[in-house]
Inverse folding.
């Protein structure tokens, strides 16, 4: 889980220099550990399409098979 | 007929033989991965839903035309179609994905954080939004690999094939994505708590 120590006051527009040429600052093991810790938070971003979208697809399939 | 234990390949065959329920099962099985992968690229629920539908309409047309290559796996193939439709969309719009504040429904809202205080709940909600923003700040090729790997659960070989790069490049981009996410989180005082 991700926690914030203070009320976030983020200026995301100031973040830059994320291209691949930048030097890596964390070890492979650190990154693996970080990814493992990040997975639950990433999973919480999972979203579902609406039932209506699925119904539309199935209706298209049925109508196009006739 | 019980479709739940069928492989994707079997479901495709059953669908082509006229079993509409096989398509329903394929959608049910993969909808979260496909929709989330599209949503995180376009960051707009309504647009993501349109592209999700267009993706499956293309899947249906391709299957019916007998053009599906059975040697490939179903999910990577569908994700590739969705990915290409996202690229087509941005080419049409002649712009890059932008960060918007149009978030509406969030699965967190209904999963129930009932025992949290209002403050804790607000922090969690803010943190999830922050993570989404940070993902969107990644360079597009790193964001794509992260999404395909984590949400699409594609192998690095599949990602490499899909994005037309070497496996090492795909692997490297995942590393850079994670590295950059971590750096941003550190600089913005977002910390990970394991457990």
């Amino acid at each position: 889980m991700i926690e914030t120590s203070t009320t976030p006051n983020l200026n995301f527009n100031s973040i830059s220099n994320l291209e691949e040429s930048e030097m890596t600052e964390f070890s492979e093991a650190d990154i693996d550990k970080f990814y493992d810790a990040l997975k639950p938070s990433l999973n919480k971003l999972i979203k579902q399409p609406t039932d209506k979208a699925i119904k539309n697809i199935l209706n298209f399939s049925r109508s196009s098979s006739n | 007929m019980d479709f739940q234990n069928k492989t994707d390949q079997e479901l495709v065959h059953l669908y082509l033989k006229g079993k509409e329920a096989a398509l329903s099962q394929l959608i049910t099985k993969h909808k979260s991965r496909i929709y989330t992968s599209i949503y995180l690229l376009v960051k707009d629920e309504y647009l993501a839903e349109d592209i999700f539908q267009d993706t499956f309409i293309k899947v249906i047309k391709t299957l019916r035309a007998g053009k599906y290559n059975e040697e490939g796996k179903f999910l990577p193939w569908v994700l590739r179609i969705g990915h290409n439709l996202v690229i087509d969309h941005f080419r049409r719009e002649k712009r890059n994905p932008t960060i918007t504040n149009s978030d509406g429904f969030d699965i967190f809202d209904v999963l129930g954080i009932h025992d949290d205080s209002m403050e804790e709940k607000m922090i969690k909600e803010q943190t999830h939004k922050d993570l989404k923003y940070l993902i969107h700040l990644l360079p597009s090729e790193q964001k794509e690999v992260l999404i395909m790997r984590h949400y699409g659960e594609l192998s690095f070989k599949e990602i490499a094939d899909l994005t037309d790069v070497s496996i090492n490049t795909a692997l490297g981009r995942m590393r850079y994505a994670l590295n950059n996410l971590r750096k941003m989180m550190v600089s913005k005082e977002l910390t990970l708590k394991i457990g």
Residues 27 and 59 of chain A are 51 Å apart (CA to CA).
